[in-house]
Amino acid sequence: MEYIFVLASVIFVLGFIFIFQGLMNKIIHEEVTKDVIQKMQTKLFIRVALFEVIPIFMVIGAFIFMEGQEQRVDPTIPIVIILSVFLLGAFRIFMSFRDVKASVKVNELINPIQTLFFISIPLLGAIPIISIIMLIIVSG
């Protein structure tokens, strides 16, 4: 049952990477301005919020189900898997950011793109961190 936390983290990280890379591809292949990047940032927040619902329900459901059980779980392997998935996702986001930064020819667009990148890393870590904390709580 502890692997539901892992599944929630994997679903979220893969979905987040898909959303982020879609936005980065749009920046690479289209002419963008600061206003367009700000609108993309808003779209990122909305899409992530909508996509985050399913993993949150999975984490809450697993926590409720596991709280009443007498047997304790060993959280080591699930935590290692969650951290690995997070690190791979962060690496993939960094690679997308690096590609976009290299393709942008207007220097004034680099700061908004960096802001988008630095906002994305904590967003990516939200569900994995919640899953790790819940695993630690459940393992008692």
From TrEMBL:
Source organism superkingdom: Bacteria
Ion transport recorded as keyword: yes
Transmembrane segments: 6-24, 44-65, 77-95, 116-138
Entry-linked InterPro entries: ATP_synth_F0_csu_sf (IPR038662)
Keyword annotations of the record: Hydrogen ion transport, Ion transport, Membrane, Transmembrane, Transmembrane helix, Transport
Annotated protein name in UniProt: F0F1-type ATP synthase membrane subunit c/vacuolar-type H+-ATPase subunit K
